[in-house]
Design brief:
It is a single chain. The chain has two helices and 21 strands. It has about 230 residues and is mainly beta.
């Protein structure tokens, strides 16, 4: 049994009771405490956390092709312990998913998730889009201990149209994660782009009022190279 908690905004604390395991970003472990000898160990995840070997291989091929690496390690617990994880002073946000509920996370913003989360890779669309906007990691809750911890460069902002019919438009390079509906990819390409007079915001993720979502965005944009997918 595990429980995820945020400490001082910048650190994830994982409490484990008994035998269990979680998956975290490689190198994110910073400290741990347990009674007696250390009762947790780390294993590099070679292909991916999927239970199905075919899905794991597919996800690895896709991520290598798009440059979206997801270096993970498995933390296995064999007794009661408290461990701590962080990454370069980034802010940490924890989602406690209900069974069947999903969160879509940019791979570099994924810090950790519990063993009760089903992991998969989702294709969003094609066209002139960011390299970081093609595929995303999907974590789906399967039990009462389905936790996902994500990272944000700076204090994140939350946008939601769950209680209204607003349209949410965001820069994909500022998106950390979102819930529920997939976004539409909106392109803003005109003759100005051809003469170097583009606005710098050529594409957007957009959710209309009927596409209910909650989006977590960070106050910085990740660098990217724009390219065309046939």
């Amino acid at each position: 049994m595990v429980d995820f908690q945020v400490i001082n905004e910048l650190c994830l604390m994982v409490k484990c009771t008994g035998n269990d395991c979680i998956f975290t970003k490689q190198g994110a472990f910073i400290a741990g405490e347990c009674n007696g000898a250390r009762n947790f160990k780390f294993t590099k995840v070679i292909l991916g956390p999927q239970q199905n070997i075919g899905q794991a291989i597919f996800g690895q091929i896709i991520r290598r092709a798009t440059g979206e690496n997801l270096p993970l390690m498995k933390v296995e617990f064999s007794g009661d312990s408290v461990t701590y994880y962080a990454n370069q002073e980034q802010h940490v946000v924890v989602y406690h998913l209900q069974p069947g509920e999903s969160v879509y996370v940019e791979s570099e913003n994924l810090l950790a998730f519990s063993n009760q989360c089903d992991y998969s890779v989702r294709f969003l669309g094609q066209g002139l889009i960011s390299q970081k906007g093609m595929f995303t990691s999907v974590l789906t809750g399967t039990g009462n201990e389905s936790f996902v911890a994500v990272l944000s460069d700076g204090n994140p902002v939350v946008l939601s149209n769950m209680d209204n019919n607003s349209t949410i438009t965001v820069d994909p390079d500022a998106v950390v994660c979102w819930t529920n509906a997939d976004p539409e990819i909106k392109l803003d390409i005109s003759w100005r782009n051809l003469i170097g007079q583009h606005s710098g915001e050529s594409y957007m993720f957009e959710w209309h009022g009927s596409a209910k979502t909650t989006v977590l965005i960070q106050p910085t944009e990740r660098p990217h190279e724009t390219h065309i997918i046939d």
